[in-house]
Amino acid sequence: MNIWHLDPRLADDTAPVIDLPLCEVRLMDDANHPWLVLVPKVPEAVEIIDLDPTQRTQLSAEIDLAARALKALFKPDKLNVAALGNQVPQLHVHVIARFRDDIAWPRPVWGAAHARPYAPEELVQRVNTLRAALGAGRK
Known about the structure:
The chain has three helices and five strands, in the order αβββαββα. A hairpin with a 6-residue loop joins strand 2 and strand 3 (about 35-40). It has a five-stranded antiparallel beta sheet with strand order 1-2-3-5-4. Helices cover about 35% and strands about 20% of the residues. The mean pLDDT is about 95.
């Protein structure tokens, strides 16, 4: 039996927020954008099609929860949702709040600007805010 492990690059680039039934939700350490990464805790999952039907339904529900939390907290102009995996093959889904005046608008966030890491106290505050919103959304 294979055991699920978080890819080291995802671990380095993100901070843990909350564990949901399927996914570990993490905050991308880039203060340029409110940006969540959902990582299904399914060993060897690379593509969404690697999940069974029940897991795919759960992933959709958890993406919905993350998107609604970002929308409620940050009032973005647009939400971007993507599962690319070109650099990190482990299945993960980006949910990003976008604003017409953000540093990358209207382009994708990848490669548009250098990541701006959160200051330690800012990171703690952002994680706590997101954890509360995501936890409340599950009830």
